Amino acid sequence: MNQATLEKIAAGLSLVVIVAATWFYWVQILDVLELLEMAYG
Amino acid sequence: MDVFAFFQWLDTSWLASISKAYGGVFAVVQVFHLLAMLTLGGMVLTGDLRLLGVLLKDVPSEVVIEHTQKWFSVALVVLLASGIFMSSAVAIKLYYNSFFWAKMASLAFGIFFVYTIRRPLLRYDHSTINPWTLRLVAVASMTTWFVVAASGRWIGFS
Fold first, then answer.
1. What is the DSSP letter of A1?
2. Is B105 an 8 Å CB contact of chain A?
3. How far are the Cα atoms of B11, B21, B23 from residue B16, in angstroms, in the given order?
4. If 0-12 CB within 10 Å is exposed, 13-18 middle and 19+ buried, where does residue B128 land?
5. Which residues of B are less than 8 Å from A15 in CB distance?
6. A41 pLDDT exceeds 80?
7. Pair B78, B114: CB distance under 8 Å
8. What is the number of domains present in chain B?
9. Are B16 and B10 in contact (CB under 8 A)?
10. Which of A4, B19, B61, B157, CA to CA, is 20 to 30 A from B54?
11. pLDDT tens, residue order, chain B (158 aa)
């Protein structure tokens, strides 16, 4: 695989990883905020 | 291959006999697991923060990556070996734990990412690689190993 192709795959896959992890942890944060709201109003 | 059969075998294997019966041996292996985890995390952070230009700016990034990748591989082998031993003590319980599978999936992806994307890409002269690609790879690498560690810790709370 040449450098240009590898760079494109690396950039694309990295972007997918970052977006997926951010979404996953954002959902977790929202859950915690919801629990806090239920507990403390 | 039947995955559950593997966990059943692991639960009754000679590894499980040792890990279940000898708390001292389990504790020593766990220490090596934790030390390897620290080494792996340290190598990931050092390499990726150098790619982001945060630390060791006076050392060429190629040199930092070369050295951190070597110790990353050593730590990974120790982690896998000690992890299999520790899993044998609670194999069936782990099989039914969703966060264990989240950890395994992120670990498998992390290994794939390091050895088929990150390492081959960083073999090229870093000055010839698009700086944004380097940054994206660095952030994705740290994110992936953070997810592995967080999922692993989550097993204990689920």
1. -
2. no
3. 6, 8, 12
4. exposed
5. 136, 140
6. no
7. no
8. 1
9. yes
10. A4
11. 688 888 888 888 898 889 888 889 999 999 999 999 999 999 999 999 999 999 999 999 999 999 999 999 999 999 999 999 998 988 898 899 888 898 999 999 999 999 999 999 999 999 999 999 999 999 999 999 999 998 888 887 77
In terms of residue numbers, what domain contains B69?
3-155
- Model's pTM, two decimal places? 0.86
- Chain B nearest CA to A26, separation (Å): 13
Q: State whether B133 and A7 contact (CB < 8 Å).
A: yes
Cβ of residue B158 closer than 8 Å to a chain A Cβ: no
Q: Give DSSP secondary structure letters for chain B.
A: --HHHHHHHHHTSHHHHHHHH-HHHHHHHHHHHHHHHHHHHHHHHHHHHHHTTSS-TTS-HHHHHHHHHHHHHHHHHHHHHHHHHHHHHTHHHHHT-HHHHHHHHHHHHHHHHIIIIIHHHHTS-GGGS-HHHHHHHHHHHHHHHHHHHHHHHHHTT-
Say what angle helices B23-51 and B131-155 make with each other, to 10 degrees. Answer: 160
Q: Which sequence spans correspond to the domains of chain A?
A: 1-41
Mean pLDDT over the full length of chain A: 91
Contacts of B114 in chain A (CB under 8 A): none
Q: Do B144 and A17 lie within an 8 Å CB cutoff?
A: yes
ipTM > 0.85? no
